[in-house]
Amino acid sequence: MLEFYLIIHFLFTVMQFLIGVLANGIIVVVNGTELIKQRKMIPLALLLCCLAISRICLQLVILCMNLGTLFLIEVPLLADNFVIFVFVNELGLWFATWLGVYYCAKIAPITHSFFFWLKIRISKWMPWLILGSMMYVSVPSVFCSKQIWVHSQNVLSRLFSPNATQIKETSALQIVFLIRLLLPLLIFLSSTLLLIFSLGRHTWQMRNTATGPRDPSTGVHVSAILSVLSFLVLCLSHYMAAALLSFQIFQLRSLVFLFCLWVFGSYPSGHSMILILGNPKLKQNAKKLLLHGKCCQ
């Protein structure tokens, strides 16, 4: 029988899953409808669709991991699908990275010639960046799938064993997996921090030079900074939780282990909620879809 704190963790996991699927589903519906109506390639809508679809798949895998933690599904099922988890997680991180680069190029008030050049070309590059990310992530998943499967079966069998204890064994495959995640992390950090600092400096300059009524754009810049900061915190937390879970330093079902799982799963659902709340078009369409669902009931 499950302990009380495990039941609470399971309820939070289900809520996290439902919120993530709902938020990402709204993003797919809104942007997918826009792509169909326009009948042409819209870079941001295409990127958001790909990002949301990858996160829905990731939410399903995270739900299976949590069910495995509670011994509600068998470990071999997790091992068989671990290659899918590696692929979906890394692909979603690359899509989120390109979203950060896109926002930095389009929003950051930087007058350098390189950013002007990037701002003009980023939209044309977006389909190729998406395709290149899929190819880059697919290579190890296809050619090293057997090694990943064998390693994941061994790790998950130890990790999700009822008698599991702290394991400090680290394999080369784990290190390679984490190193591969460093590249999108570095690109994301560079673009996000640059966007935050440039918006912050621009907002500070506008406040100091304003002599009349408050400029409405100042509030927009502050909202954008808070939104990007929230995204940054969620992303870094996701990377940290992935590293801690990968090195298996916590005992199965311990509070710290469950907390890491919860933090790991908060990123794909939490950031999608931030995207909806920070985008007036997504926010308005989300309200329409929810009101339509209530009317149908």
UniProtKB/TrEMBL annotation:
Q: Which GO terms label this protein's molecular function in UniProt?
A: bitter taste receptor activity; G protein-coupled receptor activity
Q: What is its main location?
A: membrane
Q: Which family does it belong to?
A: Belongs to the G-protein coupled receptor T2R family.
List localization entries. Answer: Membrane
Q: Where are the transmembrane segments?
A: 6-30, 42-62, 82-105, 125-149, 175-199, 220-250, 256-278
Q: Could you list this entry's UniProt keywords, alphabetically sorted.
A: G-protein coupled receptor, Glycoprotein, Membrane, Receptor, Sensory transduction, Taste, Transducer, Transmembrane, Transmembrane helix
- The name of this protein is Taste receptor type 2
Q: Which domain of life is it from?
A: Eukaryota
Alphabetical GO CC annotations of the entry are: membrane
SUPFAM superfamilies in the record: Family A G protein-coupled receptor-like
Q: How does it sit in the membrane?
A: Multi-pass membrane protein
